[in-house]
From TrEMBL:
Residues 10-140, 157-224 form the Exoribonuclease phosphorolytic domain. It comes from Ruegeria atlantica. The lineage of its organism: Bacteria, Pseudomonadati, Pseudomonadota, Alphaproteobacteria, Rhodobacterales. This is Ribonuclease PH. The gene is rph. It catalyses: tRNA(n+1) + phosphate = tRNA(n) + a ribonucleoside 5'-diphosphate. Phosphate binds at residues 86, 124-126.
Length: 237
């Protein structure tokens, strides 16, 4: 039995509220159970120096957690004077995951920055950030297309992510914190809405896993991402 009482293949309740900030070109608040992330997308008429003059666009991301997003207060990274390694790793993951669903030629020579701020954490914050980040990105691109700044839709496929793992010897979908903290195997699966893989992060936290178990987790991830893609579509319709 899972601590939440969910079935092995059951997602947490997912909701995506759009237009939650006044100034950002795209924004949403995504809730996956008790994990809540504010995602905003900002359009800038510039690109990093390494692609300047190439005609290609760029999508990047920043990630952070509020001090009381977790059970105990975390010190703000700004107060420490630098970002932690986990933060840097996650925001790079979000950026490259979102870029995988973007036609950068169609986007044109501009940059969209997706900011993901975790308001409340209960496991799966990077997955929620990627899923909500794509919604914010979609809304920002919609504005570019509405004004005629972009002619051809640069978003070729939705991008979403979900966690899966081996908990109490069973493969489970969408781990919350009690499961994540005790899982023998933990994985994050980033996929397109059409079912193509972008990135898989899997590690044995307390026990090794077999190829058959990995296939079981892959099947669960496909189910979860298809549900998330449907939620993204509904939120941006």
């Amino acid at each position: 039995m899972r601590p939440s009482g969910r079935d092995l293949s059951e997602m947490r309740a997912v909701s995506i509220e759009t237009g939650v900030t006044k100034h950002a070109e795209g924004s949403c608040l995504i809730r996956m159970g008790d994990t809540h992330v504010l995602c905003t997308a900002t359009i800038e008429d510039r690109v990093p120096p390494f692609i300047k003059g190439s005609g290609l666009g760029w999508v990047t991301a920043e990630y952070g957690m509020l001090p009381r997003a977790t059970n105990t207060r975390m010190r703000r990274e700004a107060a420490a004077g630098k970002q932690g390694g986990r933060t840097v790793e996650i925001q790079r993951l979000i950026g490259r995951a979102l870029r995988a669903g973007v036609d950068r030629v169609a986007l044109g020579e501009r940059q969209i920055t997706v900011d993901c701020d975790v308001i409340q954490a209960d496991g799966g914050t990077r997955c929620a950030s990627i899923t909500g980040g794509w919604v914010a990105l979609r809304l920002a691109v919609n504005k570019l297309m509405k004004t005629g700044d972009v002619i051809s839709d640069p978003l070729v496929d939705p991008v979403a992510a979900v966690s899966c793992g081996i908990y109490a010897g069973q493969p489970v979908l969408d781990l919350d914190y009690p499961e994540d903290s005790e899982a023998g195997v933990d994985g994050n699966f980033i996929m397109t809405g059409s079912g193509k893989l972008i990135e898989v992060q899997m590690s044995a936290e307390g026990s090794v896993f077999s190829r058959a178990q990995m296939d079981q987790l892959m099947d669960l991830a496909e189910k979860g991402v298809s549900e998330l893609a449907a939620a993204q579509k509904a939120a941006t319709a």
